[in-house]
Design a protein that fits this description.
Elements lengths: L6 H10 L4 H7 L2 H14 L8 H14 L3 H11 L7 H9 L10 H16 L4 H35 L11 H7 L2
Helix pairs in contact: 1-3, 4-5, 4-6, 4-7, 4-8, 7-8
Organism: Intrasporangium oryzae NRRL B-24470
Protein name: Carboxymuconolactone decarboxylase
């Protein structure tokens, strides 16, 4: 979908943000775009009960584990430097483990472990829940559950529709190759 857009679509795109392909896809039905904006506005705001760093760890890990190179690449390109993710940590979100040496903060490890459990088993055991709550608080843990689910859904959309990488964003395959 390319400009010029009908007024409803143009307004939906203005609400969603930068002209990314995923937003163009959502804006094909303006009502959907407005609904997504309402959900995303909280989860991408400072009102979220997670730190911005932990938010990005959740998004990066979820999208990588779901195989969404598109969404992982967009978030790594836009936020990795802003939230202090080292290149090694960015690669680890895609192809590593919470026990990788690059993860020194126990909170980061708890967040990554929780996302892995949610993607793999769709559940946290009592010890994982306790570790997560200890790291991010109960409200942060609830937000993490919802954010993981949200980006699982976004990953479905970007994979199934085969969205091409946005210009200048890394791919899961390229960072796997580079890390060998």
């Amino acid at each position: 979908m390319e400009a010029p857009f009908d007024p409803a679509t143009a307004e939906a795109l203005d609400v969603l943000g930068p002209p990314l392909d995923v937003f163009r896809l959502f804006a094909r039905k303006p009502e959907r775009a407005h609904a997504i904006h309402g959900w995303g506005r909280y989860y991408l705001s400072r009102q979220l009960s997670l730190s911005i760093r932990h938010r990005e760890l959740v998004i990066d890990r979820t999208t990588a584990r779901c195989g969404s190179s598109y969404e992982w690449g967009v978030h790594v390109a836009a936020f990795a430097d802003k939230v202090g993710l080292s290149p090694e940590q960015a690669v680890s979100t895609a192809h590593g483990d919470p026990d990788d040496a690059c993860w020194r903060d126990p909170g980061d490890r708890a967040v990554l472990r929780a996302v892995d459990a949610l993607v793999d088993r769709h559940d946290l055991d009592d010890a994982e829940w306790a570790d997560l709550v200890s790291a991010v608080g109960e409200e942060g843990a609830i937000d993490l559950l919802l954010l993981t689910g949200w980006y699982h859904a976004i990953s479905f959309v970007t994979r199934v529709t085969r969205l091409p990488q946005e210009p200048g964003t890394p791919t899961l395959a390229a960072v796997a190759e580079a890390s060998r």
